[in-house]
Amino acid sequence: MNRKIEIVRLGIVFSAVLLLAGCAMFRTRVKDDDVTQMPQLDARYGPQDLRRLSQDIVAEIAASSFLTNQQDAPIMIIYGIQPRTTTFVDTQALTDRIKTTLTQSGKIRFVNEARRQELMKEQGFQAQSATDDTRVAVGKQLGARYMLTGALVEMQKTTGAQVRVSKTELMYYQLTVDITDLETGIVAWSTQKEFAREKREPLIGW
């Protein structure tokens, strides 16, 4: 009888431990992460790729003969990097980081293409309303000499239908960035970056 009671007690204690552990698993948890040490949760393009690619592109442009041969910091406009991917990738975030870093370095000046309509409206207002002493002459706005464009290509491969205990996903990315001379139409500088990532997950387990 005592043995049965002891078994029941142990069962109650064990159930209580499982219940408490289960409750802890489902509690909301919030913490700050170091953006330089964020883990890669899957094989797809992520924040760490954004940071690495932008840093690599900036470093290549800064060290390129295209830039070192310039007498002054060239004026550039960004027309974007085309995302040729199966899922949404915010390539504007990539060009924003490139533009911000190069602007802070003083090596390149950028036209604010996102605010061109507002600039034209202000120029029109000044042409009609401002005095000669305060008017910014229409036509004096700095025009871009170079244009930055590019494309981000994604290719995906997964294991085919067969008897297996795991699933493998392979993601390949290729980033191309071009700087084009707007006066001649010639590509003044170009580079490519590529990387691949594999994810393997069991089909059975938890």
Give the helix/strand layout:
Layout: H1 2-25, H2 47-63, H3 65-68, E1 75-84, H4 91-105, E2 109-110, H5 116-129, E3 146-158, E4 166-181, E5 187-202
Helix pairs in contact: 2-4
Describe it.
The two termini are 39 Å apart. The protein is elongated. It has one domain: 3-Layer(aba) Sandwich (Rossmann fold). The chain is α/β, with parallel strands linked by helices and 206 residues long. Residues 134-140 have low confidence and may be disordered. Strands 2-1-3-4-5 form a five-stranded mixed sheet, covered by helices on one side. It is 36% helix and 28% strand.
CATH architecture assignment: 3-Layer(aba) Sandwich
Strand arrangement, major sheet:
2-1-3-4-5
Q: CATH homologous superfamily - what is it?
A: ABC-type transport auxiliary lipoprotein component
Q: In total, how many beta strands?
A: 5
How would you concisely characterize the structure shown here?
The chain is α/β, with parallel strands linked by helices. Helices cover 36% and strands 28% of the residues. The chain has a five-stranded mixed beta sheet, covered by helices on one side.
